[in-house]
Structures are given as structure tokens and as C-alpha cells.
Backbone:
């Protein structure tokens, strides 16, 4: 059952609101645009006594993540949020959080990395962290931000997972856009997330000294990476289970990969986060004209749902992959991984890569229209297959 | 027979060491180049060396420094440096 109550909030406040309802034991954060509003709003909840959270104001993102690692290691539910260079400054600690299997939840208001300095939304921050061992969820709009936050906790703390989770939303485009959001009630969230599960004890036990973070050389490090690999392998089934349970309880349907008007489509546009709202509008418009086009939106990028995406895409004639990040000197991330996932099939659709919206530039209906035109050409002739385009760059 | 090390699923998560004080069982003194040699005649038992040794390797018995735990001393020379009586000298390790 949904609450039936709507609030008008931007994506950042949505994140803060979800954090308030989760009421984590510890939040350690440092402000950075466009994430600032998340932690600013949350600190208001702390100041008003609306949460019991111990709020740690640290001097940098490196310290924010370190404090979260320490808190989670002590068995606390720990959360933070960041963006762009803040995420970059957390870098080394991200890997440590994941390798110690600490279920920290972090919101990221995706923003372009410097330089040159830019404060607007693209995925260069999160894409750089894709191999840090964190689960990455992506959110098209504020409602998804909200639901992702609530589900993230369940995913992170699941006994088969115990990994940190990053909830991504596009900086400014989502974080600063007001939309109607239907949150659950405080009671619903409290009941749903429940108390910390018994297996989440943290690494420390009072009266029983242990060493965390010792030197781990050639004879053991590899095995410890295997532990992480194995945990990651279990994440997708857990996400599926959590999403199904969420649907049963609250009547909100989410899938690892959303298919929009794709069932009878010949062509699809694939992408993540806010651009997919525009893509869906374009699909609606073109469908009216009889164009058989659809949209495919992975909600999870880590672990990469490789079998799921390949099985969905294999039946289309032409596929456009939108990446809001570049990988200089290689293929863009979503494109590269999709290509690799498709390799298992002998018959594959025509695929083309589009890098778009870097530094927060608008990916407009008009620009996406050119992608659709390319697809229409490519589906019969193969023209543009495996080529890489920079959408709208001068 | 070669020692059979544990597999990934038998090891503590992230390499945590669950047994307190087990560094005693690992002889970290094997890669030393210089070793400290203590001269009891010059020593005034001020314990400076004991306070500064990063590896807890100064041995004190009945209130007197009697030498170094060479299984764990890494040969850093800090003890020799801080000794006010030059009662510790660093000598080339002969292996
Ligand atoms: S050489 Fe270094 S490690 Fe060895 S006893 Fe002296 S201070 Fe300790
Ligand atoms: S510092 Fe020198 S004098 Fe003092 S206890 Fe050690 S060896 Fe003896």
C-alpha cells in the first residue's frame, strides 16, 4: 500500500527525507554542490531533533567516508552523500568500505569532475568509481530517488550482500528539480527496514580485540578480492527479491532494467538517470507517428546486469547507447559493457554509442530526435554500427 | 609437505585478524640488515630505548635491559639513536 500522500520536493530534499525516515545511526558528510542540499536539509532534521542520528561534520569527503567506515565497522547504520570531486576525494576509502563489506549508503548527486571546473550533472564521478566494489543504483526522477534509498538499505544489509550502495541522481537536473513524490509513511519505512539484521554486527566486538586493516600480501589479498567478487555475484538476485517485496508491500514496481514501450519495438535507446525521462517523451511522440521505438533503462550499473541487458537487447534491430560520461581512449562505460555482454550472441543488433550531456548540457528532444533518425537509418542499412558519436558537441 | 592455506570462503572478511596478539607468532626480524647490540656495562637502565622501540623488542628482566628480541626487532636503529649512553651499537647482520 502506498501512503497516498504527495510532497513537492526536489531530488536533494527527497534524499534527505528518505534519510530522515531511515534515521541512520551515523551520518558523516561534507557539503559539495549539488549534493549540499541533501546534507544541509538532513542537518536541519538533526537540529530539530527529528532523527536520533549522530551527525559528524568532518573536514573533507575523505574524512566523511572514513567516519562512515569506522561507524559501520562498529556496527552502526552509516550514511553520507557527495558529488564529483568530493567522490573523487573519497576514492581510496570507497574501496576500503567495500572490501570490509560495510553496508554504507551514499547518495551521489552526479556531477562532472573538474577540470575545467563545472558543477552540473554528468556521470563522470560515479563512472570513475564503478570498480570500487560499491553497488550502484541509478534514479531517473525524484520518486525513484526516494524508492532507491529505501530499497538500498535492504540490499546493502542483506546477509548475502553486505556491501555499500551508491544511490545516484543527476546533479541539478534531478537534485534541484521539484517534483511530486509519494513517500511511504514513517511507520511504513520503520517497519520495512526494521532493526539492523543480526548478521550486521560490525567488525568490532567489545572485549574481543581484533585487527582491522592489516597488511594483506600476495598470499591472501587475492582471496579477499574473491570474497568481494562472490558477494557482488549475489547482488542482482537480491535486488530482484527486494524489488518484488517492495512491489508486494507498497505496490510500486521496479525492475533491474526498465523496458518502456519495448515489447514490439525494432529500435531502442538505452540510458540511465534523468535523460530517460526525455527519451520516454520522444518515444511517445514517435510512437504516435508509427515509429517502432522504445526505451531501455538500467537502474543498476554495478553489478552490471549483463545477462539481463543482453537478453533484452538481442531482439532489436538497432540500439543506441547513451553515456553521460566518457572513457577517454576507450569505449564509453555503458556502451563498452553492453557490447561485451552482447558478445555471447551470434546474431546481434546494430549498436551505436552516444556520449551526451557532459558538464550538464541539456540533452534535448531535438538532439535525441537525431539519435532516433540515426536508428531508423541504421536498422536497415547498418550505417553507423559500432561508431561513436558525441551528441550535440560543436 | 606444502602448507595448505585457507580458501577465500574460510578466511575472515577483508583480512581482519580475529586473534589478539598473534603478531608474536610472526618473526618479523628476518629481514634485518643491522642488529642492535646492547652493552650492559654502559647501560643506566633509563628505558629510553624501551619507550622508543617501534616493535616492542627491548627485553627487560628484573628491571634491567638485558638485550633485544631479535625475532621481532627490525633493525631500525632507533634504540641506538636515543640511547644517552651509547650503550647500543648497530652491527651488520651476518646471515
Ligand atoms: S633496532 Fe629498532 S626494532 Fe630493533 S630493538 Fe632497536 S628500536 Fe627496536
Ligand atoms: S637507552 Fe641506553 S642506557 Fe637507556 S636503557 Fe636503553 S640501552 Fe640502557
Residues:
Amino acid at each position: 500500500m502506498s501512503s497516498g500522500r504527495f510532497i513537492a520536493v526536489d531530488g536533494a530534499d527527497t534524499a534527505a527525507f528518505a534519510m530522515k525516515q531511515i534515521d541512520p545511526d551515523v551520518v558523516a558528510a561534507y557539503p559539495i554542490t549539488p549534493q549540499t542540499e541533501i546534507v544541509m536539509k538532513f542537518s536541519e532534521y538533526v537540529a530539530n531533533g527529528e532523527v536520533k542520528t549522530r551527525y559528524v561534520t568532518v573536514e573533507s569527503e575523505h574524512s566523511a567516508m572514513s567516519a562512515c567506515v569506522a561507524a559501520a565497522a562498529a556496527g552502526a547504520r552509516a550514511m553520507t552523500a557527495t558529488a564529483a570531486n568530493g567522490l573523487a576525494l573519497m576514492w581510496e576509502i570507497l574501496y576500503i568500505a567495500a572490501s570490509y563489506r560495510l553496508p554504507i549508503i551514499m547518495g551521489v548527486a552526479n556531477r562532472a569532475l573538474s577540470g575545467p571546473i563545472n558543477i552540473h550533472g554528468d556521470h563522470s564521478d560515479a563512472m570513475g568509481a564503478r570498480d570500487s566494489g560499491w553497488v550502484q543504483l541509478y534514479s531517473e526522477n525524484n520518486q525513484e530517488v526516494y524508492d532507491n534509498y529505501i530499497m538500498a538499505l535492504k540490499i546493502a544489509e542483506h546477509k548475502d550482500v553486505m556491501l555499500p550502495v551508491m544511490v545516484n541522481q543527476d546533479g541539478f537536473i534531478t537534485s534541484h528539480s521539484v517534483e511530486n513524490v509519494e513517500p511511504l509513511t514513517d511507520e511504513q519505512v520503520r517497519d520495512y527496514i526494521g532493526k539492523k539484521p543480526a548478521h550486521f554486527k560490525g567488525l568490532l566486538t567489545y572485549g574481543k580485540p581484533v585487527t582491522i586493516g592489516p597488511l594483506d600480501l600476495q598470499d591472501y589479498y587475492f582471496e579477499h578480492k574473491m570474497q568481494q567478487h562472490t558477494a557482488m555475484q549475489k547482488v542482482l538476485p537480491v535486488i530482484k527479491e527486494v524489488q518484488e517485496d517492495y512491489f508486494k508491500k507498497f505496490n510500486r514496481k521496479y525492475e533491474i532494467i526498465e523496458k518502456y514501450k519495448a515489447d514490439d519495438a525494432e529500435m531502442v535507446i538505452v540510458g540511465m538517470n534523468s535523460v530517460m525521462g526525455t527519451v520516454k517523451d520522444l518515444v511517445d511522440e514517435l510512437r504516435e507517428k508509427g515509429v517502432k521505438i522504445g526505451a531501455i533503462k538500467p537502474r543498476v550499473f554495478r553489478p552490471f546486469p549483463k545477462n539481463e541487458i543482453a537478453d533484452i537487447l538481442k531482439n532489436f534491430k538497432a540500439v543506441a547507447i547513451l553515456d553521460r560520461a566518457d572513457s577517454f581512449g576507450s569505449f564509453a562505460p555503458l556502451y563498452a559493457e553492453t557490447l561485451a555482454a552482447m558478445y555471447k550472441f551470434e546474431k546481434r543488433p546494430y549498436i551505436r554509442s552516444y556520449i551526451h550531456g557532459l558538464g550538464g548540457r541539456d540533452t534535448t528532444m531535438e538532439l535525441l530526435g537525431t539519435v532516433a533518425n540515426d536508428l531508423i537509418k541504421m536498422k536497415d542499412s547498418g550505417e553507423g554500427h559500432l561508431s561513436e558519436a558525441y551528441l550535440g558537441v560543436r | 609437505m606444502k602448507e595448505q592455506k585457507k580458501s577465500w570462503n574460510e578466511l575472515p572478511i577483508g583480512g581482519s585478524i580475529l586473534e589478539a596478539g598473534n603478531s608474536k607468532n610472526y618473526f618479523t626480524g628476518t629481514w634485518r640488515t643491522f642488529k642492535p647490540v646492547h652493552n650492559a656495562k654502559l647501560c643506566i637502565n633509563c628505558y629510553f630505548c624501551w619507550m622508543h622501540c617501534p616493535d616492542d623488542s627491548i627485553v627487560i628482566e628484573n628491571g634491567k635491559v638485558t638485550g633485544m628480541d631479535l625475532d621481532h626487532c627490525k633493525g631500525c636503529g632507533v634504540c641506538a639513536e636515543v640511547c644517552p649512553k651509547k650503550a647500543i651499537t648497530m652491527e651488520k647482520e651476518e646471515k
User: Anything to note?
Assistant: The pocket of iron/sulfur cluster (ligand 2) is lined by residues B 38, 43-49, 65, 82-83, 85, 87-88 (CB under 6 Å). The first helix of chain A runs from residue 11 to 22.
